[in-house]
Structure formats: C-alpha cells, structure tokens
Amino acid sequence: MTNGAVAQIGGQPVLILPEGTLRSKGKEAQRNSIAAAKAVADAVRTTLGPKGMDKMLVDSLGDVVITNDGATILKEMQIEHPVAKMMVEVAKTQDEEVGDGTTTAVVLAGELLKKADDLLEQDIHPTVITRGFRMAKFKALEILDSISKKVEIKDRETLEKIANTAMTGKSAEKASRELAELSVSAIQKIAETNEGKTTADTENIKIEKKQGGSITDTKLINGVLIDKEVVHSAMPKTIRNARIALLDAALEVKELESDAKINIDSPEKMQAFLEEEEKMLKDMVEKIAKTKANVVFCQKGIDDTVQHYLSKHGILAARRVKKSDMEALAKATGANIISNINDLSDSDLGMAGIVEERKVAGDRMIFVEECKDPKAVTILIRGGTEHVIDEVERAVEDAIKGVAAALELSRIVPGGGATEIEVAKELRKYADSFKGREQLAVMAFADAIEVIPRSLAENAGLDPIDKIAELRSYHEKNKPPFGLDVFSGKIQDMTKLGVIEPLKIKLQAIQSASEAAEMILRIDDLISAGASEKGGAPAMPQGGGMPPEY
C-alpha cells in the first residue's frame, strides 16, 4: 500500500491526491481485493449444509446473536473493507430476492475469485477471465434449467421437502417436520393463481415471537394475531361469529385548531358543551352498532367515553393497531379499512369464526381466527430462550421463502451438491469448445462450483477429495440427482431422499456470485481517502491517549 499523493515530473514532486490518501495499484490491488473477498467467504463457509456449525456474534453493546444464516452473520459482522462490503451485498441480494442460499452465494463468489487468482498468476488478463466467467455463467444457468423438474402448489409432499431442506442445519432442525408442515400450510393459504401462474407473497405471512414453551408449540393461526389487548375491562374477551370493523379514524372528538378559542361564560354553557361532546361520541358508537359490528380494530385512539359505550353494546375493541396489522386483518377477514366513520356500512365488515383475547407468556394478545378464506395468516413462534426463538424465526423465514421461490418458477433441483456437480461436468464439456484462454476461465468456473459439495463434505467430517471423485463418477454414468448424504456419508439419490431446493436459489446464487467476482476482478486501483478535514476525527497527538487506568 503506497501513498498515492505524489507524481514525479522532471524530478519535481506534484501532489495529485490529498495528504493521507492510500493507494494500491495493479496486481497488489487485485490480490488485496481477492484476499478480502476470500476472507468473507471463509467466515461463512463452515456454516454450509446440515452439519454446518453456528457463529456467535457479540456487538458493541454486548447483544448476542447465535446463527448459521449467512446473511445474518455478514450483517452483524460490521465489515469495513470496501471489497468485503461487496460480498455482503451478494448475501443481501440473495436474501432479498430468494430468502435462502446466502451462504452458497458468498462461498461461490469467494471460490471464483480464488480460482481467478490462480489464473492471474499465469499472467492471464482479468478481462479474459471475466469474459470466460460470464460465458460460463450463462451456460450454467442453461444447464440448471435443463436439469430442473416441475412443481405445483398442490404437490404438498414436495413442498414440505423443500421447506425441510431449507431448515436443515438450523437450530430448529429437531422440529423441522412440524415447522415445514406449518410453512407449507401458510403458503398454500395465501398463494394466488392467475392464468396458471402461482404467486405467494410472503409479506402476507406474519411471524410473531413469544418466549416460553418449546419449538413444537409453534402454531399456525388461520387469521391474524394482534399484539394488543382489549381496551376496556367491561368489554367481552371472546366473540364468536365476529363481524369486524376496521377503522383508520380516531374515535375521539377532534382537537381545536391551535389558535381557535371557545368562550364559555356560564356553567350552563359549559354543561351544554360537555353534553354536546358526549352526544358526538355516543353517535360514533351508534353508527358502529347500527352495522351490527361486534369487533372494532382502530388504527388511532379511542376515547374513554367511546370505550364505555362500546362495552355497553358488547363490542370488543382494540386501539392503535399497526398499519401492517390492519392490512393483514383486511386480507384475512375480507373487511374494508374505513377512514371516515360516516361511510361505514355492513358491507365493509369482515368475518372471523372467533376473536379472543388470550394470555401468551404473560402478555395479552388478540387472536382473530377461523377466517373463511384468509389471504393473510400468522405463525406464532415459541421457544425456550430468546436466542432459540430468533433462530427458529430465521429457519421458518427460509422455509417460507424457499417454498415461495419454488412456486415462483415452478421448478426444483436436487440438493446435496448434486446440482453443482452436474453443472461442473457439463461446463467442462462446454470448455472444450473454446480454443483461446477463455477455456481456462470456464474450467476454473466449473472447478469453483464444486466448492459447494466440497464444503458439505468438509463440514460433515468426510474426505472431500474422495467424495468429489465419487460424485463425479456417478454423474459421468448420467445420474444427475445423485448427491452427498452428509448423515450417512454415502452418495445417494437426493430426490428419493427428499433433499430438494428451488431452482431460483441456484440461479440467483450463480448470478450474484459471478457478477460480484467479475466486478472485483476488474479493480486494479484501490484509492482510500484519508479522514476528511470536516468529518474525520482529529489525529491523536503524539503521546496522547487515555490514562493507564482506562
């Protein structure tokens, strides 16, 4: 790393960049970039697969996160290096786009750069490598599509296998069968089919966490769980055959404008004013009661007087309900959200079999259940400790997003490294069609893809060289679904074993990893500015610092 601030002209130094700027160029810059990216990949590599280990991350406040979810690890690591941040982006993209396969994407990007480093050592130009990588990427996407199989929303058994595969290796694995069933049930409830294409918006599956009980107590609610309590003690706590009104309007008397005044110069006027105010509040309740609504969820406040009148009518009410919960209630019950109480009619009401306030782990919550055809559902996660619940939540999210991703393209591929070995085999055949140096880059891409089965074997304590050789021989005999069963250590048919992944996870992982590797390879100059005069911290004076007791 050199100070890039000086250039020589006729022996005279000329300042180009500000003082304190650090700069590395050429091969040094490439090596630094590749080393940073590889370090990030190595940080998550040991978490890959069912036998992957977990990471414990402690932040500056002492909060602890225990996980083996790639995206979570990289988010919590607070990475500073600019190239390493690009690797975090790979995980972030994978997480947002598919929700699973974050570790796969990052490990693959790291391995592509490692193989590229070997080619750079042979004096192959970075643009040749990136061109080869790009062609290999497109070919890999074609191969993936050709080996994928169709899946439909009705095929519950296959969808449960996808959910199960997404959860293996997580702390929630011991309850993965039950959680997989819940996840698939949730997706099937909220999925919508248009013109033969099925889509499942995972935003419509709300996840609530409550400490206590065990993971197996986690349950699916055919409706919505609201983390609020009934506003008035005299209101009923259970209502069957609920007729639900959703109000985005305050059940209170409006405040006066800031500069408006009311002059009251006698007790009679005061009394009349208070009576009028009460009449207005009573009218609000009468309008609600007229529609025969027996449950009210209000996004804003409910006046104490209104609470009293609502309880007289036997109406259950909750106030200050979150906007997202209101939207979920509308989807689950079929109600319309009304912003003006004068517009409320019985056709705006939603239906639910039961609305009930229950105590969960010491907190009162309102359950809106037994909805007829809910397009929004809730999964209530239980577990012994906060860290367990958080990891179960991550596992359930992976399962839900995995199933949704499988339905999006309606295609699945075998897991256990089977897909990667098949892609690598076909890419090597494809590499033979090149005459130039690109052939080496395509071969390097094929070798890099095999990092996934190799890591699976390493994390399971198996010999990676033996297992890769064995897998290759199976695939040479044209057995594409055969992958590594990490529990028995044998090569098995993954589709029969139920180790299945959505095609979208693999497509996105290869695309993200390849594009990040190509971008990092093209960097041959890294210029880091020194601390700015305004924003940067002032330099510590010589001999300065904290006294020894600090």
Summarize the structure.
The protein is of the alpha+beta class and 550 residues long. It is built from 17 helices and 24 strands.
CATH class of the largest domain: Mainly Alpha
Quaternary structure annotation: single chain
**Quick one: biggest sheet?**
7 strands, mixed
Looking at CATH, which topology of the largest domain would you report?
Answer: GROEL, domain 1
In total, how many beta strands? Answer: 24
Number of discrete helical segments: 17
Low-pLDDT sequence parts: 533-550
CATH architecture of the largest domain: Orthogonal Bundle
Helix content: 40-55%
Q: What general form does the structure show?
A: elongated
Fourth-tier CATH superfamily name of the largest domain: GroEL-like equatorial domain
Overall mean pLDDT stands at: 83
Number of domains: 3
Distance between the termini: 33 Å
User: Compute the gyration radius: what is it?
Assistant: 30 Å
Counting helices, strands and paired strands, the structural category is alpha+beta
Q: Beta-strand percentage?
A: 15-25%
